Each structure stands twice: as C-alpha cells, then as structure tokens.
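G.,

No rush on this.
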Amino acid sequence: MIREITLGQYYPADSVIHKLDPRVKLAATLVFIISLFVFRSPEAYAAATVFLGTVIYISKVPVKFMMRGLKSIILLLMITVAFNLFLTPGTAVFRIWKIQVTKEGIVIAVSMAVRLIYLIVGASVMTLTTTPNDLTDGLEKALTPMKKIRVPVHEISMMMSIALRFIPILLDETDKIMKAQMARGADFETGGLIKKAKSMIPLLVPLFISAFRRANDLAMAMEARGYHGGEGRTKMKPLVYKRRDYTAYLCLLAYLVIMFLVNRLHFVTGILGI
C-alpha cells in the first residue's frame, strides 16, 4: 500500500507535457481543480474526462502507474460515497431497514467520487511530469508579484519543494520499517480496520525519528553551503515561455469555454424541460 502512493514522484518521459513550463502546468492544474467544483453538470464532467484523458495520453505516463495512486484513497472514497449515499434526504429509491438510498444521494455520491478521483489524478499528472526543482522555480516565478506585499515567496516555494521531495523518501523509509518489523513478527495485514490502525502505531516513533534526523541533516547541509534565502540568487535555467506554452494556454482557455458552454446548455435544457 505504501508504494502505491504516486503523489510527489516524478516519472521521466519524452513528452510535450514534460517539456511545458511549470507555470503552465501549475495554472492548468489549478484551473482544472476549480472547474470540477464550479461546473457540476454531467456534460461538464464528460468534457473534464476528455480533457484529463487527453493530457494523460500526451504525457506518456502509463495509465496503470497513474491509477495506482488511487489505491491509497479508497478508504476515504468509500467513506465519502457512503455518507452522501445514505445521509442525503430526498426521493427514496429503495430502503433497507432504517437506511434509505435517495436519488439525490446517488447523484451527489457519484459527483463527489468523480471530483475526488479527478482531483488526485490531475494533481498526480503535474507532479509526475515536473521535477521538484522545476516546480519550485515555477511556483516562485508565478508568485513573484506577491513579493511587493512582503510575502516570502522563495521560502514558501522551497518548503513546498522539500515537502514533495520528502514524500517518496519517507514512503520508502516507512516500507523499510514495516518490513523490518514484519520480519520480527509484526502483523500489519490481518484483522479489522481498528486493529490495522493500532498496528501502525509502532511505526510512528522510528518514522518520526528518521524524519527529524533527515530534516536536521538537510538544515546543516544548507547552512554549511551558505544558504540565506532568495535574495541575490540566480537561476541556472531561467524560465522562459516558448511557443508550446502559449499553445497550452490557448488549449486551457478552450477547455474553460467548452466547460462554460456545456454547463450553460445543461442549465437551459433543465429550465425548458427538454
């Protein structure tokens, strides 16, 4: 299960998506996530599916590898769907004892499930096709105007980069600790949900110790190399927009226009009762 988490990992490939400016991918991810919550019609979800599927195909990242990351949120997904399915009032479809499933509950449950899945996959596309360094540079460049109001843009970007870089490292560390404890007789597989949760507690102490040790080593290394923040620092590879980046922005604008039109069409047909 630990190795199934793909968020924060980078998958090297020779694709147009990998070559795009990180600012384009940050903007596209943000716009895509917002569109999932703003446009809620079935036609809008269909357009979002086509857009996301096209991006995944162009990125040349294997679909199986990308979907593998969804295994880590199955429990959260099931809880979300169950709450919306059984606790939403409305027109009853069927009833089991005191529990009823409503038409409105089914619609909301499916909608929430689609949003959650697309949100994870959309964010994974960005991290899988962008190195942590590029992501840091892109975020810092995009937030540059906020320096005028004294927002520590460089430090925020650096913290985000370190966090993303530490995700796969801590996952590997957790996997090693689990295997070491399983070799000594620990059981993480059998039993119910509560038992599995309790069995994970012995992992926390060595994992926290390892995380703090790595953080301390990183801080000492940065201090030894004279790191003092973003003032006066230069980039070895400055970010410059190219023709493919402007094309990507146009495609993103077209996606927004299509989402608005199909959502408006659904609204109009609903009023007219077509």
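When you get to it, here's the other one too:
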Amino acid sequence: MANFSLKITHHRCTVNNTIISKETFGILKELAKNNNKEWFEKNKPAFKKHEASVKSFFAALQEHMEVHDDIEKMKMFRIYRDVRFSKDKTPYKTHFAGSFSRLGARLRGGYYLQLKPGGSFAATGFWEPHKDDLFRIRKELEMDASDFRNVINEKSFKQIWGDLVGDGVKTAPKGFDKEHPNIDLIKRKQFIFVRNFSDGQVHSKDFIKEVDKSFKAIRPYFDLMSDILSTNLNGESLLD
C-alpha cells in the first residue's frame, strides 16, 4: 500500500477543464479498493487535484448550459459519506457528482451528473417534488395528460433520454381513481429521466458537449412542467 501511495501521488492530473481524464477514474477505482481513512489521507493531495479538475469541468459545463438556460448555481457534492444511519460504514463515495439549479421560482427542474468508473450518468427532472407540487402535477395529469405524453414521447427527445423513470405508489394516490386512464403517470412520486454514459464516452473530448446537448434536449419537458407548477388548473399564474 505504501508503494501505491507514492505512485498515486505522482498521477498526472489533466489541466484541461473540459475533459475527464482516465487518471481521474483511476484514483476513483483505487479509492473503491481502499475505502478507508488511512489510504485516503496518504493519497489526499493527489485526490484533491483530481477533485479540483472535476470541479473545473462542472464549472465549464455550467458555462455551456447558460447559453440555453438560466442556471442559479452549481454544486459539487463532497466525497465524504454520511454513515450515521447507514449499514454501509465505508467513509467515502466512489464517484464525483454535481448538480445545477435553475434560476427563480418560474424555472423548475434540476440537472445532475455523476462520474464513476462503470457507472456514469446524467439525470434530470423532479427527484422529490414538494407535496404541493406533486399534487398539482397529479391534478394536471388527471385533467389532461396529452401535452405531457407528447413531450416525453417525441422521437428526438426519446432517443436521448429514453423512458420516464422514478418511484411511485403501487395503486393510486389518495383521492385519485385507480382506473383513471392516466393512472400510470398519476401514481408516480418522481418524474426523472436518466442517460447512462460509458467510460469511453466520459473520457472523450466531446463529452462536455454531449452532456450539454442532453441537458438542452430536456427543455421542452422543463418548459411544460414549469408552466404547470407556476399556474393553477385554470391556467392562471400563481407567481404574479
């Protein structure tokens, strides 16, 4: 382990902030094999360099996204795990991840990107809608889900993002008819889309453009959901 510590400390850290290097994934792989405080402290200087490189990548991605959306903030998540209520007591995450929040109450939805050897993906949508927002979405779908279905089933959209995913209730939420023709949508608690990436795609020089293109493609969905969540069932604004 001591020999490896010396090796990893001299890992090359890519300075190009638009590329995720193979070396960055290399240190994540070694962290997965040595998920303990002793190893992490020995290799922390090298790890922090790669972490900073990834943060620069997220910042560059935000600049791309701001061409077509209003981004309020970017957040890169810490590598330390909260193990207080978990059976898994390993202290560190084995991936880098960041989220991007849209600006203001009118622009709804969020973006997320995880970078992990063999497990990288982009996700977008509504992870845990507030109960009032969730009820509003369900009422809209109960009344008419045609616009929603048209957006998520549009060919070019589906080629990038595939099918809607996320948790839901087993039958029907309280107050909704379990036989309703749109019950498949109404019973959802999350409204998420996920796109997976291979390691080869992540290390490509075009990866940042591909992620940005994917996030840009979600806009028809975000525009529709923002309209729903900022109006009542009569289409009257809740924000004025």
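Strands lie at 71-76, 96-102, 110-115, 120-126, 191-197. The first strand starts at residue 71 and ends at 76.

Enjoy the weekend,
O.
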